[in-house]
User: Fold this.
Amino acid sequence: MTVFKPIESYADLDAKGFTYRNSREAVLRLPFPYPEDQYMYSMNVEPHVPFGEGALRAQFDIDEHYISECHHRAQILESQPGVHYAALPHMMEAQWDLLELLMESYSRDYPEHFSLEKKGSQWRWINRPLGLDDSFTFGDASTLPMEPMEYITRQAQGEFILLEERDDTLVMGAGMATQRADYSLRFNLGMSFMEFHGPVPKLHEMGILQRALKFLLRLRPGHPVRRTNWSITVNPRLETSAETLPDWAPDRTTVTAQNAGELVNLRIELQPLHRLPRSNAVLFPVRTYLVSLQQLADFAPQWAKRMHRVIRDLDQELVDYKGFTRYRDAMVTWLSQYDDGTPVDESQQ
Amino acid sequence: MLITGIKSRPVYDRLHPMAGGLRHLIAGQGSGGAAMLRLIGDMSNEQRGNSTLLYSVESFSGHNHLQALQQAEVAGLEVFASNQELIDALRERLGDARMGTRLYLSGSESFIGTAMQAANAVDLNRDEVLREHSGTLVRRVWCAHCDTYTENVTQRVFVCPGCQLHLVVRDHYSRRLAAFQGIKADGEVPGELPAAEELDT
Assistant:
């Protein structure tokens, strides 16, 4: 049973006194994104079936930060209305699909925390960690306090994007994105798959986007797939949108070889993609995990060793895109103290 | 962060008569008038008879094709002093439009982009619209930080009139907002600006 930590603060809300930390257990269950000592883009997609006891066990993972993250989402939505949640009007059916999928998944995978009772279209949803007990009519948005997507994703960890299939591509139709990595939801809304991937280097030339799109257009309901992605963030800051760049980009100048362990966080994104049954939309969730290099080295030294090699040898274009050009060397110096040159053995940590 | 070489910039068409159309709405602005005239010349008499022209004389480069357009043998010509007035009228025409309507747009990127917002509002299909770009590629830019739109931007770095930040214009285009993205140019170190550069206008 997941034990939730009391509400923690993230660096984007209280930079001076953030209390976000991972326990040893939380680090060891991470979906670590480097299968090898080198990293390059690939079609790293696999069937989203339960695996092990960590982040890949449930359909939608929750961990010890669940209450903190929901609290964070509520604060961000309140402080910047209209910036982090948006849905085009014709996406309502997909919103209900999403609500159903999250409620069914959470109540099945975490019955001690969530319950869903259905009598026809009369549904009762109980969320014990957040203290909610709500009854509503499925399909009737007027019986919920807000749109179904906003309602359910305020109770979920991770970012959620709904993609509509149209003109042989996927178009961004709705999003709950209080923790997005350096893009603007309002700007990207309505963009096609190729357009919203426009700023990512190399993908177009490598042919990966064409293959990924073909693959996703064949996605069937009930057969989700997953991939991981990653980035680097200074301080445990979930909300790093294009809009708030003036607030967080200056942090990049503060990293040194001495403080990198404390300041630099590996930002892991677990992305389980689902085809939704009524709307035929594709759900693209980004479940984000932040872990400081220090905590990674303390609790999972084999992963720290591998990360040293990945960051040291990473293609410069990817370093620029992920935004740590200014402090890559400091990170590598700091991480090198955990790399003795021997092969990485994950069974040893 | 990628500033140039982003793949979201629209690719434009060359206007030509769409054979399946029963009614033709031809809207243009400034130097776009030349493409309108060429299109009308390529049409059959019947197509011309089912064509309505909407022309705005607002122009960044000073081109005006009004006189020639007035000579065209079409069903109607409406003239507007500004692009905004034209787009408001276009929105009304499209609201009343029936199946078989085809839309042709020619003018600046900003004009085409905002006119496309009207077309998307009524869900015109991709094969019911043609867009031909003409004149300069001055850009309409959306500020990610204060939500201000600035027209006719020609420099890679400019000061946002809304929030006074130095913005760098990315080659990243949103059809929904009909604008390029501007973000704080000296985000990491205040005052450390990218090199000034003329946009490929």
